[in-house]
Amino acid sequence: MIVLMNSGTDNELKEHSRFFEASGLRAYTVSTSKGPVTTFMGPDHAGLEQLPKLSPAFQCMQPSVPYVLASKTIKDTPTVIRLANGTSIGGKDLVIMAGPCSVESESQMAEAARAVKESGATVLRGGAFKPRTSPYAFQGLGLEGLKMMRNAADREELAVVTEVMDPDDIPVICEYADILQIGARNCQNFALLKKVGKTGKPVLLKRGMMTTIEEFLMAAEYILSEGNMNVILCERGIRTFETETRNTLDISAIPVLKSKTHLPVVVDPSHAAGNWKLIEPLALAAVAAGADGLIIEVHPTPETALCDGKQSLRPDKFASMMEKINQLYSMMATHRS
Amino acid sequence: MIVLMNSGTDNELKEHSRFFEASGLRAYTVSTSKGPVTTFMGPDHAGLEQLPKLSPAFQCMQPSVPYVLASKTIKDTPTVIRLANGTSIGGKDLVIMAGPCSVESESQMAEAARAVKESGATVLRGGAFKPRTSPYAFQGLGLEGLKMMRNAADREELAVVTEVMDPDDIPVICEYADILQIGARNCQNFALLKKVGKTGKPVLLKRGMMTTIEEFLMAAEYILSEGNMNVILCERGIRTFETETRNTLDISAIPVLKSKTHLPVVVDPSHAAGNWKLIEPLALAAVAAGADGLIIEVHPTPETALCDGKQSLRPDKFASMMEKINQLYSMMATHRS
Amino acid sequence: MIVLMNSGTDNELKEHSRFFEASGLRAYTVSTSKGPVTTFMGPDHAGLEQLPKLSPAFQCMQPSVPYVLASKTIKDTPTVIRLANGTSIGGKDLVIMAGPCSVESESQMAEAARAVKESGATVLRGGAFKPRTSPYAFQGLGLEGLKMMRNAADREELAVVTEVMDPDDIPVICEYADILQIGARNCQNFALLKKVGKTGKPVLLKRGMMTTIEEFLMAAEYILSEGNMNVILCERGIRTFETETRNTLDISAIPVLKSKTHLPVVVDPSHAAGNWKLIEPLALAAVAAGADGLIIEVHPTPETALCDGKQSLRPDKFASMMEKINQLYSMMATHRS
Amino acid sequence: MIVLMNSGTDNELKEHSRFFEASGLRAYTVSTSKGPVTTFMGPDHAGLEQLPKLSPAFQCMQPSVPYVLASKTIKDTPTVIRLANGTSIGGKDLVIMAGPCSVESESQMAEAARAVKESGATVLRGGAFKPRTSPYAFQGLGLEGLKMMRNAADREELAVVTEVMDPDDIPVICEYADILQIGARNCQNFALLKKVGKTGKPVLLKRGMMTTIEEFLMAAEYILSEGNMNVILCERGIRTFETETRNTLDISAIPVLKSKTHLPVVVDPSHAAGNWKLIEPLALAAVAAGADGLIIEVHPTPETALCDGKQSLRPDKFASMMEKINQLYSMMATHRS
What we know:
Four copies of one chain form a homotetramer. By secondary structure, chain A is α/β, with parallel strands linked by helices. Chain A is built from eleven helices and 14 strands. An eight-stranded parallel β-barrel of chain A has the order 7-8-9-10-11-12-13-14, surrounded by seven helices. A four-stranded antiparallel β-sheet of chain A has the order 2-3-1-4. In chain A, strand 7, helix 3 (106-118) and strand 8 form a beta-alpha-beta unit. In chain A, helix 3 packs parallel to helix 4, helix 6 packs across helix 7 (213-224) and helix 10 (279-288) packs parallel to helix 11. The longest helix of chain A is centred in the C-terminal third of the chain and has 22 residues, at 315-336. Chain A starts with a strand and ends with a helix. The relative contact order of chain A is 0.13. Chains in contact: A-B, A-C, A-D, B-C, B-D, C-D. The A-D interface holds A 210, 212-214, 238, 240-245, 248-256, 259, 272-273, 277-278, 281-282, 284-290, 324, 327-328, 331, 335 and D 210, 212-214, 238, 240-245, 248-256, 259, 272-273, 277-278, 281-282, 284-290, 324, 327-328, 331, 335.
């Protein structure tokens, strides 16, 4: 169920909002090409069919897809997410998020931050709380790691993206990070999605290894329906029978998502491939297919990395890749405009 | 890393425990065919190679699989989990868990409980907190639903299994349920696994749609490594390209798991198939393949169910299926002993 | 397009057949519970809508599934395929096909034939022309192997099933075998399907690793539409992300197929699992799920096998498994009748 | 087993060839950066270990991968396949193959040929013998279709690629086509692979929907081992759980294949996506990831196509896509050289 206000005055909106909210509906205001549009949504249909009769300003709509707020039906302009350091995601610039898999030390983060900034990244990535298949594997430095990452980012005027796994960690991660990352294994952890939704912070939502595109958009909807429209979708490879790569990068997901949603789409070739040699061709492919950004593992010394060294780029390889990426993105941009 | 005590006296165990714990190791005591064995495990190897020298009673072992506590290496007898109502899981009886997908009302639960008890179930299933792909779908009755389920179960002397999605709900679910269920989508939600591990309560861990058998055992290890050995593994179908069934029941997972772990293995044919007509042949197949139990959706009136009606059995179909299941299990039992 | 004659006299049938055939239709006569029914089918709809007007005996039908001859729409009784040695497939007996992966020698086949006959098999399996992933792997003994298999089978009054890969080999295989096997990799090799269809010989069609159940039935339809109704469907595992087993036995395919088609369904647990230890539980599961038969790799000395030794049962293991299988099938039979 | 001659004189080669061939070995001569290298290969190891002792010019090698002739071990320069119309595949030019799914008429082919030529294609594609899931679907125009395609191609100086399904059709297809295509469903139809291998004609081998990259290279090896080094590999999407696209284009397969083999790699975005709207982004991604060419469905009037109209580009869309593709390929080329 959905009620769209498209021609109502501010007064009409205010007047009816009370009635709608009393009916258990929730208001969502999104900016569209026609200005802000407020949508009221609720869990069931009780009596809502009569709402349009209240005022011609309200139109009752039966959505054709189960993800309403994520769909282009409700918002026909791309969502652009702006961070404190000036980065905008989903706009005309390609956003580059880069950094090591895990935060390991002050010096490692400082070096990584400097290197990725130099090559054009504006967001620093790094894991302080790590989801590991084994309970005995390195689980991350936690709060200490968050502080190291924040310090390194601040020195380079980078924003910070880091993963949240445990709802209990949300407050502290919100304090240190600009973007909360939801990992692939938690893509359908609905309790966590609702909780990061409530923070209002930008969320980078990774697609699960076996999440269909429709389920992925429904997972985003869990965040959006808490009133948080700052969701970045991240394709990072799906699980298939092929074993040459860790996962199979679903390159088609980029244009399919762009056709269905106004949310920005970034690509993580590092986790998809699991092999640094494949990152450059996959990153180029992602940009050619229309991605709004990339998230890449870069480590000053991959051979000593505590985690995922095999899939991390050295700073020099990252720099030479970024040159090609920028050239390609410029070429793509001439066709867009 | 792992340290096994196999010939030490109680005094030796006590004496060295302090030293081990100071080294960051944790003690796990499991019962084996040779009596209780205490294993010390820790996150890294620091200095542990010298431990055996302290006393010949301690043997330092390099496990061949990454799930140590779940493996048969450490425990060569089947784990049997006993519930308050006398049900035991993993022992000589086939355990039957049955009930509706969602708790809907007192009368629905009362009727369901009576029906499943009559046909031999000893555990009542039902969802009070529901994981739904869409945030707008019915999310369950919550606490009120838990109470309805407990009442219905108590009248029939059934145990209760129900899903926990949000760590915040763990205390209240522990109060009303005998077994905490972790759903397929949370199979690798490590924060939640650790928290249900800490409760010590029996946990029914459903295999994720995209989880390999090795990853599944590693997920169990997250619970076990919190000192909670009461884990029941549940095969419920994996995601494949086939669309005739909702998921593909991985029947081979039963003998593969039984060859690798001492934990009980139950099968959920209802969610695997997504179609009540397939439940009987799949349930029979599961028992023939060696399952320790079944978890089946039974609803007094599937056509009015708020959720998953299509895959719910009517009580009469359940009764006639249980007759065949019991006959088959008796036949299987004669070959086991 | 399909035209059904259900109440016409023999004369009406003869009279109209000429007209139908001139319209490019082909006649298929199948036996049903109401006696033989002749169906006329053709590649397009041209003018066929007016056919029923010719005689009320003809009913023009729009099939709801794309596999017409394979479906229960056209034939409501199980297809039973009878072989020269008295074996019938799809009837009241469970059919057991067993033998080595590859024909290797006279003595190996003699020993295998004796062993499988003793435990109740009535069909001898063995590969003379082998489909191997590598062109450098052992490709089979060819004609010489066919002769060895026939000799061994004849001595034990067994029927012979063997794979055909190359259309050129069809005549010679027809001479020596009772059933032509189409391997999983050729499941959608339409040229080959049509050619084995034309022989009229019973065909064991293995499901491809990547073939949906609908595609599988369409592949069978290629054989049936050549006028050969003697098709046996064989589930042998599909490809998924799981790596503990060579393929994932799709146990649900058995009841799904039985609900859609009148053709017999057998199961090959050896190729599905790729591990002899899993054959017994999977074979029991297949029978419990309603399979009409099993095809099992049995080798007198698996450790010396030229191919697939790891998944071959020794004769003694096969014998003890067959005891349980027979007991289970008897139990199942009491419920069917 | 493999024997490499790298420093021998022509005389030594001739002298030993007789001995090798008598031992059941077959000679393969490939051109490498060090000039032509002749490799002798055979089905088993019998006595071959002593071969190097015959002459120091021969080196006995144990290959690290099971596809020897397809691997870079044996040939370190890219294979370039030259067609009669001047097209070369695998060299410095991007090759574009385009045309309708099925040959339907003289005028359709003439129009398609003109349109694709205009936009830069040098190879005309079109199906005369069609592999269809259903035996009742349009099976192609056969020989008549071949002639129409050849005529249309000749008028525009295009080469012709078309699928061969039945070994019986090989001679006639060789007469009319420049490249024989093996479809995805026949990727492991080893009998057919050997037969197209024997023709010596260029072969476009499509990856099967569930063929791993290693199995794909082994399938190519079946063709190569018949002495036909003119194999073009084609990635066309694999089967996964995702249903938004017909198949999932495995973009990573491009760099993975390029790292393992000297054979050219082309990409078919039309069959991968099953939706014309996705063709442009996927084609751009394929070129960005390093593909040597593209094979694209272009139909003058997709809405009237007898087959796959939904995934066919109109000529104008194809033209505008080709502009971007060419610009991208030029950019890529500057980095290669």
